[in-house]
Amino acid sequence: MALGLGLSHAAPAQDNNMGDCAANENANSERCSVTAESTTETPPFALDWVPLEAVPESLQDRQCLNCKGAYVDPLAQENTSAPLEKENIRALANSTQMQGNEIIMTGEANAVQGYRHMRSDEVLINRTDESSILTGNITLREPNLLLLGDSAEVYSKTGEAVVHNSQFVFHREHMRGTADILERDFDGLIHVHNGTLTYCPPGENDWVVLAKDMEFNLEEGLATLHHAKVEVEGVPVFYSPWLRLPLDDRRRTGVLWPDFGNDSSGGLDISAPLYINLAPNYDALYAPRYIEERGLNNELQLRYLNPLFGQWLVAGAYIEKDKKYSDQTSAQGSSDRWLGVVKQNGLFQQRWRSRVDYSKASDVDYMKDLETSSIDAQRRTSLLQMASLDYLGDSWLTSLRTQQFQSLADDINKGYEEMPQLTSVYRGRGTPFTVEPILLAQYSNFDAQRDVVTGQRFYGEAGLSYPMLWSFGHLKPTLKYRQVNYELSDATLFKDNSPSAGAPLANLDAGLIFDRQTRFAGRSLLQTLEPRIYYLYSEYEDQTDQPIFDTAELTFTYYQLFRETRFAGHDRLDDANQVSVGLTSRLIDDESGRNLLTASVGQIYYFDDREVRRGLNAVPREESMSEIAGELVARPTEQLGLRTSLVWDPEEDNLNSGFFEGSYKPDNGSIFNIGYSYRRLSPAFINQQLTNEVSVSSYLPLDNNWSVFASMSYSLEDDISVEDMFGVEYDSCCWTVRLLQLRYYNNDSGAQTDFSNPNLERESTVQFQFLLKGMGGFGNRITNIMQTMIRGFDEREY
Q1: Quick check: 445 pLDDT over 80?
Q2: Which residue in 533, 708, 752, 771 has its CB near the most CB atoms, within 10 A?
Q3: What is the DSSP letter of 320?
Q4: What does residue 326 show for φ and ψ, rounded to 5 degrees?
Q5: Which residues contact 349 (CB under 8 A, 6 or more apart)?
Q6: CB of 264 closer than 8 Å to CB of 763
């Protein structure tokens, strides 16, 4: 967002002056009737600022606590849809005198016209030029707007008005200001001369904007300031002879607040973005970024929205002759570095769906060297390059996709490219007690930029299912046939260039639901018991003379019990003769209908060995039963959430894998997260990594102003912190400041990290954020880090 002040569209009081009824001899008597009940007294608190102890408890949010109060608009519930010129004027004064063409109203002169309220000590009305002079304790009100002043002149014919020695408040935006003279011109523009503007509550001026002239166009949502100066604690920190500020969230061309930090891979890092609003449906963001040890990185982002072509984002970055990177490249290598990104999402006529997600970098080290403020970027081992087009028919889904990856690790081979893949699948309606066809056809062309087998794959499946659903359970038999055919090139390791395989598959899925009423901790609950049994049979077909393009063995969890394949991808038709047994129980709150707890446990019993494996030389799996898999998800309160998943091997009496995650978010804004993950090395999965890691993260307010936040991922196996972050925040009513330090390891490989490796680098970055509430601030990269590393953290918006 550009340098921003959040002001409203509500216009200051228009001139339907209080003397119109007396000045107009032909005025409608009903419209100008004087009623004491229509008057509005001055609020008991200055500038509508209500101290904390008087604020209704429902409005005492974090902002109110920080500010020790809030602006409360007495007209917040007024209806603003009716035109003011059609509303009756109701006026009241202690006394009224007529002197020629002038009318004098004195003593608590009040007027109400629709949602506009006005009062002053005295009003002098000139019927000749249809003007009024208001004197003493002037109050002009509309919803979300308050104007106070010593004197004012209003002109009912032109709508112009002048208020002297004025104060103004915008309630929703939490903004207030002052003006020596406040004018509203014929076009409805508001002009402030020698004025101030601040987010701080009355009595505090931690920061304030001073300007010789301010112009507010509330209809367009823009403010233009001349000779503007920002002061913090009375000290000038910024000056501009001309400044344009947005008054709402509409996109505006302007300079954004800068980002800056310091990290071990580049030194001082400063970015000064410029946002350009080119049209309602496209814009641009240019950010020159100076990195002390590397040079100037030019970053550009373009966005385009079109009903036919969807939403597009095209972005790029270029740094000429990266000074630090040139020391690492050979004399022949280029030290120019760049990153290109293209993303698109579109939906045309609710039928055609398109997507593009393409990223490419100049070298494998670009992301870890230049995206230092993004933890996700540091974890990437590849960049996706994909485009797809789907047709959503009434009965068919057809998808065309091309996909490849750019590896960001020198020791990871570049994978296969899908150039392209075409899939068509019948979309069954799942109607109970109706035969459902199963039809899927897929063509894939696999290419590679290395010396491996390539070729085309044709996969198809056809069959029938018959879903039977009752309130007490379900029964669903399925029968289908699967077929895979190849046309290979460069197949030196295979005897046949056109191998194929086919196998029938049958399964039967059955489950029951039992429920009963129970009570726990004073709550009325519905408890369910849901046993489920799943039989799966698939014939064995020898596929040892067939390649592996995109297939991997799925990780075993509770949900694997009820899948019809143990592979992701279509290169392997797995053999099976097994039955899975599972049991789920739920606790559901009767009053809210919320699922408080779900616990599941189950196991697979094998009647035959599993001979089909991913690897060409992998031995069959001979176990008679699988591990026992369990999962538990609990949400006993809105603040507390727990989730755990376990896989236990009863034969070896070992925990093969485990996962636990807990979060607690009390009402005071705190966040507490704790997690643990464990995965034992298994001879059945040669590429599996050992995992034994605990993670904690927290955001903890110490009081209404000070907070600390931290995150750590700690390897119990290596007795070392893999990634940690610590920061401190001071959040006052007027401004917020944050300081954060992040440390992480730069690991070039996707394999197990060797922390004993002396060449393994530990990087660090320091980020600083300063926010003037209501105007924005600099250092927004820190927000991205916090949202990534502290699950559940959302930036507060002021």
Answers
A1: yes
A2: 771
A3: S
A4: -65, -25
A5: none
A6: yes
Q: How confident is the model at residue 31 (pLDDT cuts 50, 70, 90)?
A: very low
Whether domain 20-188 has CATH 2.60.450.10: the reply is: yes
Which residue type occupies 631? E
Note whether 94 and 120 are within 8 A (CB): no
Strands (E), 416-522: 417-426, 436-447, 454-465, 468-470, 473-489, 500-512, 514-520
Tokens at 616, concatenated: 């060409």
What CA–CA distance (Å, rounded) separates 770 from 778? 6
> Hey, what amino acid is at 413?
N
Q: pLDDT tens across 212-221, in order? A: 999 988 777 7
Amino acid of residue 146: L
pTM over 0.85: no
H/E run at residue 21: helix 20-23
Alpha carbon dihedral 554, 556, 559, 563, in 10-degree steps, equals: 50
The one-letter amino acid code at 424 reads S
| pLDDT per residue as tens digits for the range 699-746 | 999 988 899 999 999 999 888 998 999 999 998 888 889 999 998 886
Tokens of 742: 């992040």
Burial 374-394 (b: 16+ CB within 10 A, else e): ebebbebbbbebebbbbeeee
* Cβ-contact 629, 556 below 8 angstroms: yes
The encoded tokens of residue 568 equal: 């992701």
Q: Running DSSP on this structure, what letter comes out for residue 57?
A: G
Q: Structure tokens of 273? A: 């973005």
pLDDT in tens, 462-508: 999 999 999 999 999 999 999 999 999 877 778 888 999 999 999 99
Torsion (CA) 88, 93, 98, 104 in degrees, nearest 10 = -100
**631 φ, ψ to 5°?**
-145, 140
Give every CB contact of residue 399 below 8 A, 6+ residues apart in sequence.
388, 389, 390, 391, 421, 422, 423, 424
